[in-house]
Amino acid sequence: MRILLLAALLCAAGASAAPQSDRRIEKALERARLAFEVDDQGDFRVAFVLPDGRSQVVVVRSATAGYGTLEVRELVSAGYRSATMALPPEVANRLLELNARTRMGAWSRQGPMALFATRIAADADPKELADALEYTARAADAAEKEVNAGKDEY
Q1: Would 153 be classed as within a structural domain?
Q2: Which domain CATH number covers 55?
Q3: 134-150 residue pLDDT tens
Q4: Which tens digits make up the pLDDT trace of 91-134?
Q5: Is 137 within the bounds of a domain?
Q6: CA angle at residue 13 from 46 to 97, to 5 degrees?
Q7: Range of the domain at 132
Q8: How many other C-beta atoms can be found within 10 angstroms of the C-beta atom of residue 5?
Q9: Are 116 and 106 in contact (CB under 8 A)?
Q10: Domain total for the chain?
């Protein structure tokens, strides 16, 4: 069951990913001494074991977006999967409330998944990347725990 859910996360997270992995991420993850896997879309999966024994996977997208001189990438982590393409109103409203309190990142719906996304500089150094990954994992897991009645799916 967990493998199927992670596969769904990767499909949702990798919809716009580049086919080649970004070597900048690989180098930064290695320098930060973080274990990772590269999926078939070139995105990086980093698994976290959190202090309370829960786990959370964060996907670092190789694809970047830019505007002018800015280049950013997304780190995404799932928090909820709906049985339909629409999120239940109480879940959607709670995630919107959480968006109002977060300073780095936001919740969005991609297909049946609610994903927490943090955007960082595409060339973030290893410490910045590691901090953003941990932040994303903790934020996604806290909401997942709340809106999934304590379940640990992602």
Answers
A1: no
A2: 3.30.1460.70
A3: 999 999 999 999 998 88
A4: 999 999 999 999 899 999 999 999 999 999 999 999 999 999 99
A5: yes
A6: 95
A7: 2-147
A8: 15
A9: yes
A10: 1
